[in-house]
Amino acid sequence: MDLIVKKFGGSCLQTDEAMRNAAAIIRDTCRAGAKVIVVVSAQGDTTDRLLSRARAMGKEPSRRELDVVMSAGEQLSASLLSIAAAEAGVSCVSLLGWQAGITTNSAYGAARVQSINTERIKKELRTRDAVITAGFQGVNRAGDMTTLGRGGSDTTAVALAAAFGAEKCEIYSKIDGIYTADPALEPESVKLSEIDYAAMQELAFLGVKVLNPRAVELAQKYGVVLEVRSAFSQAEGTLIRENADMEKLLISGVTKKSGVALIRVAGVPDSAAAFGLLGLLSDADINLDIILQSSGADGVGEIAFTLEKENAQRAVCLIKENAGAGRLTVTCDPEVSKVSVVGTGLQSHRGVARAMFGALSETGVNVLMISSSELRISVVVKQEEADRTVRALHRVFIHA
Amino acid sequence: MDLIVKKFGGSCLQTDEAMRNAAAIIRDTCRAGAKVIVVVSAQGDTTDRLLSRARAMGKEPSRRELDVVMSAGEQLSASLLSIAAAEAGVSCVSLLGWQAGITTNSAYGAARVQSINTERIKKELRTRDAVITAGFQGVNRAGDMTTLGRGGSDTTAVALAAAFGAEKCEIYSKIDGIYTADPALEPESVKLSEIDYAAMQELAFLGVKVLNPRAVELAQKYGVVLEVRSAFSQAEGTLIRENADMEKLLISGVTKKSGVALIRVAGVPDSAAAFGLLGLLSDADINLDIILQSSGADGVGEIAFTLEKENAQRAVCLIKENAGAGRLTVTCDPEVSKVSVVGTGLQSHRGVARAMFGALSETGVNVLMISSSELRISVVVKQEEADRTVRALHRVFIHA
């Protein structure tokens, strides 16, 4: 008997009609003879609305209580979808995180799955065709509810697929696959029929929101085959698996991430000062993304880094207050974008970097910062130049 | 250390402001040195809204899934109130039914509490001042969530008060006590400072909505002292306990219940036919309230009964279809009211009935039906005469 995990994102459950559509998808798979473990997110913007209701009650709500508030969202979508699926003729039952045996650590709001007790779901699937599980939530050893953080339902789905040795874990959203660039930005972008885990993870980190990077990591670890597909179309999606046939494309995609700020600190006397400065930001829970450090012949150097735009103001103040404002010059560009080219073995192909910079220079884009790894090359550009950058790079690499 | 149970109804939690008000009440009691077990209902009309969302997904949703949907309401109010109470300075934690150890049978939608495991709450109260428990919900032995039916949060509160030997169980709503008649109807109605369980139960059955009759029954069984009081006023409420000092009032209240229909069936040949007719309605899950049967000298008689107005049409059809329409005459008055006088030992005071009928006859009210028990005398009157009936009886008995 085939077992398939299907995860439905919030956009697939937002309206009554969308719910019935998801129910029909489950029914069709069951009719074809498979058992289905369904994992659901909260409907539409429910999570945000719940969060704002909690914040209205207390300036800094306890994380434990926040998780109780938030998990009501997935509870509702699981039970409502179970009712809709039953109406469509599916023999099914809804299960919450604690009922589905999903045990996590106690990091409320960002809990990690520690183990899955498969007993209850196995028991239900003996007599039913589907169980509808609330994603994003679990229970810790103290018996309290936890949530897995943004995109946590993807993680629930992959963890269940791994625990049950499911044939495939299908991730349903409004988007019908992984594209070489955002189709809204680049009409010539191409849907990938396959991509491997590492490249997908980079894409997810770099702004492709359809899949949580932690879930991709987990899928790779347990060899779970993922498929990203649309709940509103019959089109085949994109398969994510090891040794994917990347269709001979060296580059699997071009991504854009906005909402980024760039801060430059000049006049940093030595590397101890540089280290102190980074420690300062880290202590304040400000995560930095790309960090570049350079030093002149006199030992006095510069540090430049990117970070989430929301944290920029706070970072600038912290540096000015604590790091001897007299000697340092801090400049902040609060609105830049990071455009990345993702592919396998980029650094071993020297031609890629050359082609990239050639294309950008031809287009007249001003590159503010560059960072590269085995799997990607990112450039930081002014926000208003980002879309042009995406199109230029896509033209060079995907349709070369 | 005193332990007090406080139950907040939906109207006490409807808005952010109401939530903060409830939080302040909890804080004040904790500051006075008591530990508090709080039990909450869903906010405002949440339960109705959840129910209608579930019905949009399936014509006849499974009762098990309905209970998962519904219990999200109390989950939200418990966690939000816990955040508000913490903000007010209370050391507290929220617990859902399954966490609070409330085990029920599996009658989804109308489950009965079977046992309470006090361990978790005891553990929390060792280090905290309050636990905020989701009312109305429990868990059955299969590990599924159940709900206790309308007014179930009252039952949760009383069951917890009994299990923990609480000093008092306070029922907060918008209403500041039990009155001798609805104050909106009878300006001269008086708030009772005390009332005993049996009379309170009759009042609850007869339309006083502030307290669930099942909860009163449970309170009597375990000797839990109840207090009905307002969350929005400092006024003392009404105490409900055994051997209450009823302030020498023979009568504790006059109630009105509308939404009642009266059906008369004439030409019933014998008592076997009458029995068959009642069985027919019972099989169709139509509950009857007052039933009167009379027979003439020829053995042919009449049955009259009251029932919920919603069921009247269905009952009439059933009788006509199944009970030999030729011989029977069915008439239905779809809009009548039941007005009752409640007190202790009514039947042993023959003067009460006489005074009652005297008052009604003077007022020119047409009594359609009469029924009495040890604790109450009810008259069925036309709906438009009901308010006049309440005022007349209140004048005679409470301000005699």
Can you describe this structure?
The structure is a homodimer of 400-residue chains. Chain A folds into 2 domains: 3-173, Acetylglutamate kinase-like (Carbamate kinase); 254-397, VC0802-like (2-Layer Sandwich). An 8-stranded mixed sheet of chain A has the order 3-6-2-1-9-11-12-10, sandwiched between helices. In chain A, a hairpin with a 7-residue loop joins strand 11 (226-230) and strand 12 (238-240). Chain A contains 11 helices and 18 strands. With 400 residues, chain A is α/β, with parallel strands linked by helices.
Q: For the largest beta sheet of chain A, what order do the strands appear in spatially?
A: 3-6-2-1-9-11-12-10
- Summarize the main sheet of chain A: 8 strands, mixed
CATH fold title of the largest domain in chain A: Carbamate kinase
Helical proportion of chain A? 25-40%
Mind telling me the C-alpha Rg of chain A? 23 Å
Task: Kindly list the characteristics that best describe this protein.
400 residues, alpha/beta, Carbamate kinase, globular
